[in-house]
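Protein 1 of 2
SEQ + STRUCT:
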Amino acid sequence: MSELVKPMNEGNLDIVRAARLSVAPMMDWTDRHCRYLHRLLSAHTLLYTEMVTAPALVRGGALRLLDFSPQEHPVALQLGGSDPVELAQAARFGAEAGYDQVDLNCGCPSDRVQSGTFGAILMRSPGLVADCVAAMCAAVDIEVTVKCRIGVDDQEPREVLPAFLDAVRGAGCRRVVIHARKAWLKGLSPKENRDVPPLDYDLVVAMKQAFPDLHLSINGGIDSLDTAEALLARGLDGVMIGRAAYHQPWDILAAADARIFGAERAPTAPEDIVRQMLPYIEAHLAQGGRLHQVTRHMMGLFAGRPGARGWRRLLSEEATRDGAGPEVVERALERVPAIA
């Protein structure tokens, strides 16, 4: 093993435990309001920011993008970029802001990301990724991780993925999240890249066997805690859930602490979560925010429950109106019949 590899230390143990289950970084979805809601549902699950580009922080000075609530911990900052110097500075900003972990995005396939020479296109440049990781590790004391694909385009995953993992491990990365699909950089949209390329969970499991010293989490197509538990039982260290956690947050996150982390206490009902959100909403409005900026993330709280459609419809129609406040949420809650 390379001498650059940082050993897991005691200060990292909590974040490593949290990484047993995480909510994927999702552009336009996992903002600070979404994360606050998710933290009310699960005390232990690791939460991620949306991807923040290093140039936006370093060149653009957009440090407001790093704002988050202390209640969100444990929370990871995901960065996009390909310049080691910029990424190191952006990682410093993240550490100074109080994030528990900083992650390098090597998996996003969008055209905009490719044009910036970061995201999934970095799967073609493991040496550059290693340079970026090494610079970030040298800049901060918090954990530096990588999220990647199993390959891109015509690459052979069973050849390129081990080489990629070996490179980032040698640079000091000890934890990697692997989206178990290829990314097709030409010909598929970002949405299609989440569904069309076939999943290869077996390859990710094989990588854990080949790299037992790495903490490997799996991502892609996981839509239930049953599936998450089955993957953990195969020897993987963590599972990352994306869209299912967003659209069915009660089903996924409210049960996660008990099922994944062995905690005894869990939220009792989604209605309780809604009521706990009201003071947060009031504070957000008092600071000049808009109601829909928060409530858009609450749409799926009652997924599968009677009244869920009425809840979503009222919030969709009224939360965007000028002057909309907590009373809109309370009226929407009246659309959901109580369960005896």
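Protein 2 of 2
SEQ + STRUCT:
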Amino acid sequence: MIRAYKFLLRPTVGQQQALTEMLRDHCSLYNGALQERRDAWRHVSGTTVRYGEQSAQLKEIRAFDPECQGRWSFSSQQATLRRLDRAFAAFFRRVTSGGKPGYPRFRGVNRFDTVDFPRDGDGCRWDSTPHGPVTRVRFQGVGHVRVHRYRPVVGRVKTISVKREGKRWYVVLTAEQARPGPLPATGSVVGIDMGIASFLADSDGGFVPSPRHGRKAAAKLEAAQQALSRCKRGSKRRRKAVETVARLHRKVRRQRLDHAHKTTLDLVREHDFIAHEDLRIRNMVKAPAPKPDPDRPGAFLPNGAAAKAGLNRSISDAGWGVFLTILHAKAESAGREVIAVDPRNTSRTCPACGHVAAENRPTQDTFHCTGCGHQAHADTVGAVNVLRAGLARRNARPG
């Protein structure tokens, strides 16, 4: 199996400058290759330029510009051209499927933050000073950069990437390792119902409170964004304001990731089988369609957009998508089973008698069956029904 590792780099001032120049030159290569494709397609001949033709030009480009493009790894430059090729492949796939095309765009130097090295030892070397007291990674044209390695890397390193996040630099590794053995069986099964008031409720009656990281940081983010809007474009003050906003957003993102990792780890350790709702989060956060006023041309009726915007912010702040992605990855690694079930009517169905009605849930937290009188917390009822549906799906599998 393939596992990824991400470590903080601690480059010297000279190495920081070299890393910045490496990103700048790869960005220039990406934009130049994109311009070549655009010009070829706009030509009367309608020529299509592909990765193979552009990769074959690298040798000449490096010889023509030895002080910039010639300094960096040939393989990393090929990876940058493959990155552009994938962007075009995705563009044509969306055109074919009828989606929003999204033509590949030119990248600003501040929006090109990653350089990939397809193989360890080709333009880069992980643990380049194995006998030293500090772990280092070597990049061609940069040197041996110190790494803050807080845990061991297991397996054989396959690919290496260097990434810039604000003023920090990171190295991202992928390592091939043997699949770990499954965790000891616990005999426990659980269903989870994800929500806003509580991050999740389980079928055993437990609750995980919602951390609301985005809401807690909202005041600071608002102040930082207002300060940014007052800055003149291109000024040093604006660059500092942009970094402040980005730093606050990165902190919220890391907090969500930390919460998701800890919550999923507890679930995977304690349960052999986990059922959750198959949520279509992208559809859930769509803005409501406008309602034209038939009596007043050009005017619109209230459509609840303000309330829906608040709900959308809460859904995004909860980070359900990140949580479910991590849950499936950890469960697969631990030998646990995870099943997604249809979320319709899970919180409106009585677990005691099976009666389904919207009136069974008079409030957000309360479930009171109008058929048999069963009462419970609405989220717990939803989790119980999710577990039952998940077990039914598992038992209905052939074999």
